[in-house]
Amino acid sequence: MKLTRFGQSCILIESKEKRILIDPGDKLWEESLLTDHWINIDVLLVTHKHHDHCEVKSIQEITKQGKTKFYTTQEVATTYPELTPKIVKQGDVLKEDEITINVVKAVHGYVPLFKGGKGVDENVGYIIDDGDKKVYITSDTICFENDYKCDVIVLPVSDHGVTMGPWEAALYAKESGAQLVIPVHYDNPDKHPANFKEVRKEFGKQGLNYKFLELKGSIEV
Q: Distance between CA atoms of 37 and 54, rounded to whole angstroms?
């Protein structure tokens, strides 16, 4: 299984001859993504409606390719009626040949700046299981009690009341049993700067194996 990171929280998973793209957003977006990277996508997953996870024009271009199966929440579909996804909710299970995708809970944090409809009422994560490895994409979430287990966890570390910060992210990752942690959601430094020193300190305290992926950087797991 190969994971490649793009802006903010976008991850491309390649496994068992399938290409699964999660949360293509507008942070660090460039035209070449649509011609060089976000191509031949078998499954497109979006966790929630915020534009740093859901760049509408890119999704329209990706789904024009014909074979892409696009899944997201009803709230995303309602917010962007120009999109035509298949609707998923917490508890759903998707099958793509040898790959199983479990749709799981996520709890987006709220701040007063989200007044006026900007808050997220419906948010999901995804656990992608190819039979050899399980990758848990948490989405933008704060901590909540669960029994989700995985080999790799991809989780936010930027805090600001919207997502987990370094301390709780480290605890959450350890609880998942992940052998590798990939931090994300730090490509909006003006509004949500991440404290990388604290991330390294707290992840180190918990004895976590973690990797900051460069933009367009990949790792085999």
A: 16
* pLDDT score of 65: 79
Q: Are 46 and 76 in contact (CB under 8 A)?
A: yes
Query: Please, what's the largest Cα pairwise distance for the chain?
Result: 46
Interior/surface letters 135-151, b for 16+ CB within 10 angstroms, e for the rest: bbbbbbbbbeeeebebb
* Domains, the chain: 2-213 (3.60.15.10)
pTM over 0.90: yes
CA 111 to chain centroid, in Å, comes to: 20
Kindly state the DSSP code that residue 15 receives in the 8-state scheme.
Answer: E
Note the pLDDT tens digit of each residue in 160-183: 999 999 999 999 999 999 999 999
How confident is the model over 102-132, as pLDDT tens digits? 999 999 999 999 999 999 999 999 999 999 9
Which residues contact residue 221 at a Cβ distance below 8 angstroms, ignoring those fewer than 6 apart? 1, 2, 3, 133, 135, 151, 152, 180
pLDDT for 112 equals: 94
Cβ neighbours of residue 82 under 8 Å, at least 6 residues apart?
Answer: 56, 60
Residues 6+ apart with CB under 8 A from 37: 4, 6, 12, 216
For 118, the 3-state DSSP assignment is coil
